[in-house]
Amino acid sequence: MKSFISLEEAIEILNNNVNNLNIEEVDLINGLNRVISENIYAQINNPPFNKSAMDGYALISRDTESNNKKLKVIDKVYAGGNCSSIVKENTAIRIMTGAPIPKGANAVIKQEDVILQDDYIILKKSVKENENICIKGEDISKGALLLNINKKLDYADIGILASTGLKKVNVYKKPKIAFISTGDEVMDIGLELEKGKIYNSNKYSILSRINELGYEAKYINHINDDFNAIGSYIEEISKKVDLIITTGGVSVGEKDLLKDAINTTSGEKLFWKITIKPGSAVLCSKVNNSIVISLSGNPTAALTTFELLVKPTLEKLSGYKEIKINREKAILSQDIKKKSPQRRFIRGYVEVDNCKQYVHITQTKSGNGILSSAINSNCIIEIETNNDGKNQGDLVDIIKL
Fold first, then answer.
1. Are 172 and 321 in contact (CB under 8 A)?
2. pLDDT-derived band at 345, boundaries 50, 70, 90
3. Distance of CA 51 to CAs 40, 133, 330, Å?
4. Given pLDDT bands bounded at 50, 70 and 90, which one contains residue 25?
5. Cα separation values, 344 from 6, 40, 280, 309, 395, Å
C-alpha cells in the first residue's frame, strides 16, 4: 500500500483498478444520464421528407416572377397529411407548417405575401426555388454520426435519438453503491442528541450528493467502532456492489479502524493519505470486485475528497473512459491571504459576467469539520502547493460541482 501520495498518483491507482461496468439495453426514455457504449448513427433522414417551414402556399417558383400574378388554389394539405394533387404552372396548394411539399411544387410563399380571392391567390412578391422549405435530411442525414461512444445522455440527446426513431439504447450499467458511516460518537437524526454525540450529517450530505449526481446507494448502514464488525460487513457487501463509500476511521487515532477492518477481509489496501488539504485522510481499498473509498469523518474533508475521488470513480464505472478531474479557469473576486504549504481546496461560488467566469469564496471558516462552508457553493477552488496567497483578479483553477 502506498501512503502520502499526490492526488494525481491516487487517480492513477484508481484508474488501474476501476473498470467500466457491463452493458445493458434500456428504453430510450430511461437513458437520461446514462453513458452510451457505442457510436450511434441516424437511422433515417430528419426531416424524412421535404416539408413546409410555414403556413402559406406551395407553388412553382418561376410563377412568382411576375407581381400580381393570379394562381388557382387546387387543394389543401396539413401537417401529418398528404396530398395527391400535383402542382402545375399557374396553380398552388394551400399548405400548413410541417406538411409535406406536394409533387410539382418547389417553393412556399408565406400566406401574408398573397391576397386570397375566392379560389385564387394574387402574388405580392417572388420566392426562390426551395424558399421556405425544410429539405429532406437538412437537420440530420441518414447514417450520420449522432453521438460518440462514452457520451452521457442529456435531454437534448434523448430528443435527437427520438427524432431518428431509436427506441432502445445500449448503455453501461449503473454502479451499485453501498454507504457505511462509522463511529461511536455518531447518532442518526430523529433521536434526542446524547452528551458527547453528534448527528450523522455525513450520511445525509453524501447520500444526497450521490442522488444529485443521478446514482443511488442500494445499501446504507452505520457501524460503531468495531473493526471486526466493519470488516465483516465490507466483506459481505463487497460481493453485491461495485463501490463502497465509508466515512470516519481513516486517520491515525486509536479508533481510526478502517485499515484494521480491511485487514480482516480478503481485499487489499491500495493507498492511504493524499497530500491535499482538507481530505488528506482517505483510504482506498479493493475487496472482491468492489472498490472501497474510505473518507474522513470530518464533513468538509469528506465532501472534498468525495468530489475529487468518488465522483470520478462513479463516472468511470458508469462508462467514462477514465477517472479524471475536469478543471476550468475563473477570475478570483477577492484576496486569499493564507499561505498554502500543501495543495488546498476551498469552497467557492462561480458565476458568469460578460462572458467571463468569476469565483467568490464561500468558505469563510477554516477546518475539516466546518460543514457550513458547503452552503451556497457550486465549485471548489484549487490552490497549488507552496503558494503565498492569491490576489483579487488572479486566474485560478476551479472544479465545478
1. no
2. very high
3. 25, 6, 45
4. very high
5. 12, 41, 10, 15, 16
Query: Is the bond leading into 278 cis (omega within 30 degrees of zero)?
Result: yes
The secondary structure of 205-266 as a DSSP string is HHHHHHHHTT--EEEEEEE-S-HHHHHHHHHHHTTT-SEEEEES--SSSTT--HHHHHHTSS
H/E stretch holding 203 reads helix 201-212
Share of residues in the chain with pLDDT > 70 (%): 97
CA distances from 396 to 29, 359, 392 (A): 39, 9, 10
CB 302 within 8 Å of CB 310: no
- Nearest residue to 160 (alpha-carbon basis) of 320, 22, 319, 36: 36
How many angstroms separate the CA atoms of 106 and 62, rounded?
Answer: 9
Q: What's the pLDDT score for residue 363? A: 77
Other beta carbons less than 10 A from residue 206's beta carbon: 21
Confidence of residue 365 (pLDDT cuts 50, 70, 90): low
Render 71-133 in DSSP notation, one character per residue: EEEEEEE-TT--------TTEEEEE-TTPBPPTT--EEEEGGGEEEETTEEEESS---TTTTE
**Spatial strand order in the sheet of 120-123:** 107-110, 56-59, 91-95, 70-77, 120-123, 114-117
If one counts every other C-beta atom within 10 angstroms of the C-beta of residue 272, the result is: 24
d(CA 335, CA 4): 30
The residues that bridge with 92 in the sheet, in sequence order, are: 73
Mean pLDDT of the chain: 94
Q: How far is CA 400 from CA 11, 67, 320, 347, 378, in A?
A: 18, 59, 18, 10, 6
What gap in Å lies between CA 186 and CA 223, rounded to an integer?
A: 10
Residue partners of 12: CB distance under 8 A and separation at least 6: none
Q: Yes or no: say if 327 and 397 are a contact pair by the CB < 8 Å rule.
A: yes
Query: Helix and strand tally (H, E) in the chain?
Result: 7, 27
pTM as predicted: 0.87
9 within 8 A of 2, measured Cβ to Cβ: yes
| Contacts with 380 (C-beta within 8 Å, 6 or more apart), sequence order | 304, 307, 345, 346, 347, 348, 398, 399, 401
